[in-house]
Write a structure and sequence with these properties.
F5/8 type C domain-containing protein, Galactose-bd-like_sf, 9-stranded antiparallel sheet, FA58C
């Protein structure tokens, strides 16, 4: 340092007061000095020896001819310039603190408790007089020792050096997306014009997270955090979650328990944790648990992008709703708010386009509403993700699923009326994923609304696989009422209210005329009859009430025959079977 053998380009600092007081001015006994821009615990000066060196002593001075100096500091070091570790005070496992100067001119030399073998070394001031001013020299040798191997899979993955682009950073919320957005959440980020010194949330709660997208499979071995550089906000504890697709996240665990990491105790210090079980993923989330002031973070993630075997992901591919592979004609709904919020807007991550809205929205807010997807062929569905409307706080908070091979009769997924899945309860733009286990094998799936917030609106994607799926052989095909294969002439009734309520209107999902078959009288002698034209096996019956009015059948029985004269009453367990209908519709 003093003799200039270490080039100016090998010297760096967290901040500098100005170019005239940069790290290159921080050489022992020179009539200059390094000056930090701010007096806080986030400052450091770094020396790159060019090769691995053994450091045994450190000498320091204050600012030349001015009463500004460092009184105490810690030391960190690195083999590769990526991951830095502090020299620790054993046996306490805390950074070793060294006393420095008592005036600006005298040289304070300390002998390190243990020599440091590294290529990079940093001096971190933790106490000072008037202002952080520093001149340094390091003592040791370049040979005569065994060079340690660089840590495997522990390189910084690109937060601090910006190799991870701003577009790959997301967060649950931001205090201000422009001045305190995710792009500010990089380790050692410094406040500047229009930018505060960290990412911060818009509200303090346990649902907040900071997300990094690595772009491809990546192994993560360490995580480092800081608080807000220009304010007393930091995260005191956090957990991690990871994902390959950015929708379905798994909590990081150690010993079968969700691991909660100790975070920061001030706004400047870097706290690093090594993962007992390295994470292999494309996305990682830091999920704050406790905090000081406001949830605020700066982050670096360490690991590698090769040299490991990614896990095999089976039958979890998007099935084409978001991508547009499934055409708009294959997406229908019970109703739509208007022409700008049709079912074709119900694709995951759809955003407003001109007059067209950011999602499908129903015309009515009731439990009759659904959106239906036709995958074009029988597929295996293993998971589903939903969002609310992107441009308004409308969302579905819970729903059930139903499926069909032919769009005729739909089977609720799960027991009874169907398993209830959690939708979007907090953030309308946050994809909420649910695993479907056992998987659904079908061509058509409906999302049936159970509860909602403000107004029913939805965007969705299903995941699974399209190849190698065997169509179920059960006798469950729709026989032709809805699709018109059964002609009007084959549908008759005991009576008809009028021509607008004829028997031929009694097709599932029919919306013509009065929207249903209407009997002329209300008595138990009324019936609707279907002629299949030949012997047919019937395994399931689906009914709805009148589409355009609150009129429906609450219970019914069945009878059957080969000719239109002699009919047999359908029985179960030796008695006439009466089926009860809970609602006026059956989707």
């Amino acid at each position: 340092m003093e003799n200039g053998r270490i080039a100016n380009s090998a010297l760096k600092a967290a901040t500098e007061y100005s170019a005239a007081w940069g790290p290159s001015k921080g050489r022992l006994n020179h009539q200059t000095s390094y000056l930090a821009k701010a007096n806080n615990l986030g400052q450091w000066i770094q020396v790159d020896f060019g090769n691995v060196a053994k450091v045994t002593k450190i000498g320091t001075q204050g600012r030349y001819n001015v009463g500004q100096w460092v009184t105490k500091y810690t030391v960190s070091y690195s083999i590769d310039g990526g991951y830095f570790q502090y020299q620790l005070h054993k046996p306490y496992s805390v950074p070793r603190e060294y006393f420095a100067n008592k005036d600006y001119q005298s040289v304070a030399v300390v002998t390190l408790d243990e020599p440091i073998i590294a290529r990079y070394i940093r001096i971190h001031p933790i106490a000072w007089h008037s202002h952080i001013g520093l001149r340094i020299e390091l003592y040791g040798c370049y040979s005569g020792f065994t060079t340690p191997k660089p840590p495997t899979c522990a390189a910084p993955l690109g937060m601090q050096n910006n190799q991870i682009p701003d577009s790959a950073l997301r967060a649950s919320t931001s205090y201000n997306v422009n001045s305190m957005g995710p792009r500010n959440g990089r380790l050692h980020f410094q406040a500047k014009s229009g930018q505060y010194g960290a990412w911060a949330v818009s509200a303090n709660n346990e649902f907040q997270y900071f997300e990094v997208n690595f772009g491809d499979w990546t192994q993560v071995t360490k995580v480092a955090t800081q608080g807000r550089q220009d304010g007393a906000w930091w995260v005191k504890s956090y957990s991690l979650a990871y994902s390959y697709d950015g929708v379905f996240f798994e909590d990081y665990k150690e010993d079968d328990q969700v691991k909660v990491f100790v975070g920061n105790s001030d706004q400047y210090s870097v706290v690093t944790h090594t993962l007992k079980n390295p994470i292999i993923a494309r996305y990682i989330r830091i999920k704050p648990k406790t905090w000081n002031g406001y949830i605020s973070l700066r982050v670096e993630v360490y690991g590698c992008r090769q040299g490991f075997t990614p896990p095999e992901i089976k039958c979890r591919e998007p099935l084409g709703i978001e991508s547009g592979k499934i055409p708009s004609a294959s997406i229908i709904a019970s109703s739509q708010y208007n022409q700008y919020y049709g079912p074709e807007r119900g694709r995951l991550r759809t955003e407003p386009e001109g007059s067209y809205g950011g999602g499908w929205a129903a015309k009515y807010n009731d439990v009759k509403q659904f959106i239906q997807f036709d995958f074009g062929k029988v597929v295996k569905v293993t998971s589903v993700a939903t969002q609310g409307r992107s441009d308004a706080n409308w969302m579905v908070t819970s729903y059930t699923l139903a499926y069909s091979l032919d769009a005729g009769s739909f089977t609720p997924y799960g027991d009874g009326d169907g398993q209830v899945f959690t939708g979007n309860n907090l953030y309308r733009n946050e994809p909420v994923g649910n695993i479907i286990d056992p998987p659904i094998i079908a061509r058509f799936i409906q999302i049936r609304v159970k509860t909602w917030k403000s107004h029913i609106a939805l965007r969705a994607e299903f995941y699974g696989c399209t190849e190698g799926t065997v169509k179920p052989t059960a006798c469950l095909e729709a026989l032709g009422m809805q699709n018109g294969k059964i002609p009007d002439s084959a549908i008759t009734a005991s009576t008809e209210y009028n021509a607008q309520g004829s028997a031929s209107n009694g097709r599932l999902h029919s919306g013509i005329n009065y929207g249903a078959w209407l009997a002329q009288k209300n008595d138990v002698y009324q019936y609707l009859q279907v002629n299949f034209g030949d012997w047919t096996k019937v395994t399931r019956v689906a009914i709805q009430g009148r589409m355009d009015s609150d009129q429906w059948v609450k219970s019914f029985s069945l009878s059957y025959g080969y000719d239109p004269v002699f009919f047999t009453v359908y029985q179960e367990d030796g008695s006439k079977k009466v089926s009860h209908v809970k609602f006026k519709y059956n989707l």
